[in-house]
Design brief:
The protein has about 350 residues and is α/β, with parallel strands linked by helices. It has helices spanning about 1-10, 15-30, 105-110, 135-140, 150-170, 185-195, 225-230, 255-260, 280-290, 330-340, and strands at about 40-45, 60-65, 70-80, 85-95, 115-120, 175-185, 205, 265-270, 310, 315-320. The structure holds beta-D-galactopyranuronic acid (GTR).
């Protein structure tokens, strides 16, 4: 059944990863900003009194990157269980700087044996058409963009990669082979892109990322490229704009984004009542991306239903009951997926 649904969608065939990454950067997200010439870290320890009852202090790290001879700084939070080494960990791109936050049950994550690094996306650059603030101020001359210059998703994804640089700089505190980048909605799209373009991430998790994230565009009954391009053009490169109401001519679809994470692991999470993100299209993208992975996507030959959890392949999928939200049930399933591998 899923094979017929994919045939109806007439998707572009999978290509080698390098070609897929080129198409994605050229046609939808823009090319990732370059790596910094120099990076420095300043650490403020234990910034929240009695955090997690003393099990794990919350530190703030200011990351200062030099690009084109100019500096850009942004903060991240790190919560590391005291006295532990080689920790599996999440890099969570979040909407707000608060710790914990309604999308981030920090203590529960720590109690499951993980460390947690979080960053607030607006500390990197604003979520609007202004390409002169934050990191964008170093990348664009007077805010001007070329057709394949990075959109905001690529700029935020770059920051998650810098947080991983910091984790790596600490030696054996973190287990990089158990690193996972994650986010919700627009930041789920960002997490997939961060992992697609940086092979150091062992896992990626997209929560309800939908259009231009995990969901196939061809055949959607939810948000379309035209909808998202109209409302959020700044998330993408300008070359994407020509595909508004013109999906059939896209030389890619969103299974390319998932496939470009191979041979590593990726979990896609949907919410049963999030029709705008279109859970069936997120699931079908997993089916279409599967051949790029050694252990693909193990699933029944039907569309997903509430509380489906498919963790046997390199691609995992889970559908939670309810609305567009990154809740503790999503985190519990995400943690189980990482632990199961
Ligand atoms: C919506 C957008 C979605 C999703 C969401 C979010 O308005 O249409 O693609 O990204 O915002 O990020 O919360």
């Amino acid at each position: 059944m899923t094979d017929e649904l994919l045939l109806e969608r007439k998707l572009p065939p999978l290509l080698p990863r390098a070609e897929v990454l080129k198409i994605l950067q050229e046609e939808i997200y823009g090319y990732m900003p370059p790596k910094p010439e120099k990076t420095e870290y300043a650490v403020r320890r234990n910034i929240i009194k009695n955090f997690c009852a003393g099990k794990a202090p919350c530190d703030e790290i200011t990351i200062t990157c030099t690009l084109g001879g100019r500096e850009f700084s942004f903060p991240i939070n790190a919560v590391i269980p005291a006295g532990k080494k080689n920790l599996p960990f999440f890099i969570h791109l979040n909407f707000r700087p608060e710790n914990p936050d309604r999308y981030m049950p920090t203590e529960e994550i720590i109690d499951n044996g993980f460390a947690l690094i979080s960053l607030c996306y607006k500390d990197i650059t604003s979520d609007d058409e202004d390409f002169e603030n934050g990191l964008c101020g170093l990348l664009f001359d007077g805010g001007r963009r070329e057709g394949n210059s990075p959109g905001k998703l690529a700029v935020w994804a770059w920051a998650a990669q810098r947080a991983l640089d910091w984790a790596q700089s600490l030696g054996d505190t973190f287990d990089i082979s158990r690193s996972c980048v994650c986010g919700h909605s627009r930041l789920g799209k960002t997490a997939l892109l961060a992992s697609a373009t940086d092979e150091r991430f062992a896992f990626a998790y997209s929560n309800d990322s939908g259009c231009s994230g995990a969901a196939l565009a061809r055949g959607t009954t939810g948000e379309t490229p035209a909808d998202i391009i109209h409302k959020f053009p700044f998330w993408f490169c300008e070359n994407y704009f020509k595909y508004a109401d013109n999906e059939e001519n896209m030389p890619f679809d969103q299974h390319y984004l998932i496939a470009s994470i191979a041979p590593r692991r990726v979990l896609i999470g949907s919410a049963s009542k999030d029709s705008w993100a279109d859970p069936a299209q997120e699931y079908l993208a997993c089916v279409a991306a599967a051949p790029a992975f050694e252990n693909g996507f193990v699933h029944p030959d039907r569309l997903p239903v509430v509380n489906d959890v498919f963790f046997d392949g390199d691609i995992g999928y889970q559908m939670r009951e309810g609305l567009h939200y990154f809740g503790r049930e999503d985190w519990q399933r995400l943690m189980s997926f990482v632990k199961s591998k």
